[in-house]
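quick one
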Amino acid sequence: MNRNIVIGNAWPYANSSLHLGHVAGLISGDILARYFRLTGDNVMFVSGSDCHGTPITERARKEGKNPKEIAEFYDSEFRNLFKRFNFSYDLFSSTDTDYHKEKVKILFRKLYDNGYIYEKIEPQCFCEKCNKFLADREIILKCPECGEETKGDQCDNCLHVPTAKELVNGTCIVCGTKTVQKNNKILYLNLPIFQNKIEEHTEKVEKEWRINARNETHKYLKQGLVERAVTRDINWGVEIPVEGYEDKRMYVWIDAVLGYLTDTMKVCEDRGLNWEDFWKEGHNNKIYMCHGKDNIVFHSIILNALLLGQEENYHLVDTIVSTEYLNYNDQKFSKSKKIGITALEALDLYPVDSLRYHLVSNGPEKKDTNFTPEDFVATHNGELLNKFGNLVNRTLKFKGLEKIEAAEIDRDIKEKIEHTYDEVGNSIEKLEFREAVSKIIDLVEIANKYYDTQEPWKQKKENEIEFKNTIFTCSNIIANLSNLFEPIMPGTCQKIREFLDLSEPSWKPTYLAKEIDLKDKNIEPLFERLKLE
Ligand SMILES: [Zn+2]
Ligand SMILES: [Zn+2]
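structure w/ zinc ion:
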């Protein structure tokens, strides 16, 4: 029976452009989505722009705009970016839609009615000069763990999340004034009450996770989960559906992670499906969450707590797909320091499928990796142009070849093709995408070696039958490469399918059934040689 699979890509903050490192993390979701669709599963691949919270209001303040303008600008940039990168989202929405806000309010209210959200009156950091309570992110302090100066929500350097006690020593990000403590009314989420259930669930599913996700989640569980404020004093965000909280808004971590659920509801509503098939227990479903290593516990702990608190038999997150960082010339991408290029700039410079391929084959799966233009060009010219492109070109553009005629496929090659599906599929399901790519390239190399050994340019003169067998065998390898590479380079695979009159891709060995006329086809090279600019 086909499974129902949710794949959630982290919702990017709509306060600055995305760089290649972001794409290197998020492309995991697209690989999984495309792969599972090919194997016949029902896929729900969702994401959206995270439009609320202080990163946006901060940027708006700096630029003299309102938060909505900032959020809409970056939201539309993200949509353009993911479209150009060929991400196959079922829905990429935004947290600023009425649909999302209404659904989130219902889910929030349920947590409140079930007693998992409760009120506390507490002293909180207040800036007397700005006359407002400060969000954690609006406080600057010296990180108690590593000593670097950091914002109060999370240390950029060591990922430590400062406690309320530690925040007391901070200053206001806007005016630099030392904060004072003042009583405030706050709603809290009772995270500790979910500790045991989340521990049990983690133990059950973590074997599939990468090591960073296991370590980070265990670190939090070992420290013991602590209650978390869910309301903040800000006027930009989702309203609180509780009386007396009209002037406050939800923290983005609660509203954004519920976006996976509200997106699914929206898609199912539009397509006449039942969203519960994807999110409730007992529907043969599986949930994947893809993001960078700084985002792990929001998915392995917080989202699961929010689902448990509904008391409605939700299926919890199964698989955390967390990447390390991609650096640029050995430094962190940074727009302000002009290090690296944005993802859109990269698309203006380089072919999209070569970027996708390189970001996967050089992906930061188990450790940080590095992007350099030199490496990228070497990958493009070496693996894509010289190996893959060359195989396609010298087979389909063989001098004087007008059609591919049905002939006999080499038996060893056929076996190798069949074996490659199992191997690559296995690697993708183990989240080892680099390994998957290298196994497909193995098949390309075997094909090129076969071609060289057969010497079709000699066979053409000496033995017409053997020549036809060679061309037919190579064409069938190419047909199967258009399936195998589909999750990585969908645009290129589409071109191959047009060359070979193939319809839809699928994750099973595919053999050419009829004669293929090449005469009237405009078979262009798949890749052009790139020079370092
Ligand atoms: Zn730190
Ligand atoms: Zn201030």
